[in-house]
Queue: 2 jobs
Job 1
Amino acid sequence: MAIRKINEDIYNIGAIDWDRELFDELIPLPEGTSYNSFVVFGSEKTALIDAVEPEKEEEFLRNLKELNPKRIDYIIANHAEQDHSGLIPKVLEWYPDARVVTNEKCKGFLMDLLPLKEDVFDVVEDNQTLSLGNKTLEFIIAPWVHWPETMFTYLREDKILFSGDFLGSHLALSNTFSNDDSQTYMAAKRYFAEIMMPFRPMIKKHLQRLEGYDIEMVCTVHGPVYKNPSFIMNHYQEWVSDDVKNLVLIPYVSMHGSTLKAVEFLTDELTNSGIEVLPINMTKADLGKLTIELVDAATIVLAGSTVLMGPHPQMLYTAAMINALRPKTKNISIITSYGWASQATKTLKSLMGTLQAQWLETIDYKGYPKEGDLEKIKALALQIAEKHRVLNLL
Ligand code: FEO
């Protein structure tokens, strides 16, 4: 991707990966991703804010060569993960006098992850500033976005927040700036769900702190630049709040149709009560489809078949991911179908110990759901409706 001008004397020389399908060998990237890297020319000094993924070395160095800064005085590392730090050693080869500017914790991570020696670093504290001449960088230590060493860099004169992964989106786009449309919204929500959601309390604090800054533009390291920061900030406020939607999420796996029958019955019962329902077949859907809905679903009901006495492996994975992502879901239950005996419900429940949600009645039934089993599912639907009423969702 070519060099993109962000503001006067500020350029994005990062790369776009149109084809990347997985991040961390875990997170599906249906719309690719980008790795943004910003060059800020001050009247006296030049700074590079974050580098890019090593796989994109050729594209990044081509842009750097074309922009051709006479000098890079500072390489600002807002985050140590290699998709933003991996090419710092290469930049240092080209600009050996550059100082790597970051916080103490990030310095340690960078030395663990990359061939960097201690004497290349300048360590900064929270709120410390760095003058580039007519432009001033302020560092805001913001841990757990989504690693413990993360920070933001605020460019005072231009009122630009360089936010690292925070507020980002895995979205490969040729346009420099966000269209603030539904595509951007969904990509940002997916990104929040998969990467930021487990750190909701910390994210909430960072958003509060940023209210004290006059921000006219947000440059994240993934996805387009926000010229209207309130678009993404307001959505983040909503996602980190305790508010939930009148939605029941049903991740399920059905081997012979018995679980599917229960899922369809529960879906109908809930729908008749005025509740939105989303069944997701976990053998077909990608992780993102589930995680996006986890952001604000009031209730989750896992429904699955039994394999060799335990949960279907896809349901094990689903339960482990829900537990790791720590959604704000208020109610949770499990429905299990089995052939002769099952420990599936017990096992799945034990895997979701971090959730603050209230456990509702769980249901185990043998084979195809019979009249008595459907009565139990109906009772579960009534219990969920009552819980949603208490939450003022109905
Ligand atoms: Fe985009 Fe945490 O790296």
Note: The first helix runs from residue 57 to 67.
Job 2
Amino acid sequence: MRLLIIGPPGGGKGTQSKFLIEYFKIPQISTGDILRDNIKNQTPLGEEAKKFMNKGELVPDSLIMNMIKKRLNTDDCNNGYILDGFPRTIPQAQGLDKLLKDMKQKLNHVIVMDVPDNLIIERLSNRRSCKSCGQLYNLLFDAPSVINKCDKCNGELYQRTDDNPDTIQQRLLVYHDQTKPVINHYETQKITKFINSTGTIEGIKEDIINNIIN
Ligand code: AMP
């Protein structure tokens, strides 16, 4: 199963991907996570990416395409994968089309998470992640049992540096301007499923499964 999950920042892509990994036994490929790992490990890619990410801007397409090419060619992708946060621009979508053609692969579904902007700001300001295992929480509707501690591994929770109001606004502008056109790109391939992502995590999960299986 090869899936692509697309939507605004805070649209629930990460949360639903974690569930899809287990359901389909395929890896999640989050370009944001790979970039954050590079920043943490102070690699040259991380140092370059940080300049853009801290401002809520997109990392240049050429860097992202190199990163994805390497990742899709690793063995754990043989049975499929979930692309999360990629492609985010038309050149990236075209680059992916070419890459898939070269690899003789096709995407099965493109899942579009539909959420209004006012909900995004509220969600992102309350988002927390575990430093150790990456588990996501939301202080409004999916809070940890103990403040700042992960329920799964007891790791410390943190707020992403780009989840502050100014950077969120910029990321939303970038989404509308550069990423939304990518949805039209896939609509011509007739594999796009729109998911209303304003409900509960469980309700959205069910909706995704119903759309993918039926
Ligand atoms: P995310 O974790 O998906 O919200 O991504 C966090 C940040 O990483 C974004 O705001 C961008 O600066 C950068 N980023 C992640 N994926 C991409 C991508 N496909 N293209 C360009 N920049 C990206």
Note: The first helix runs from residue 13 to 24.
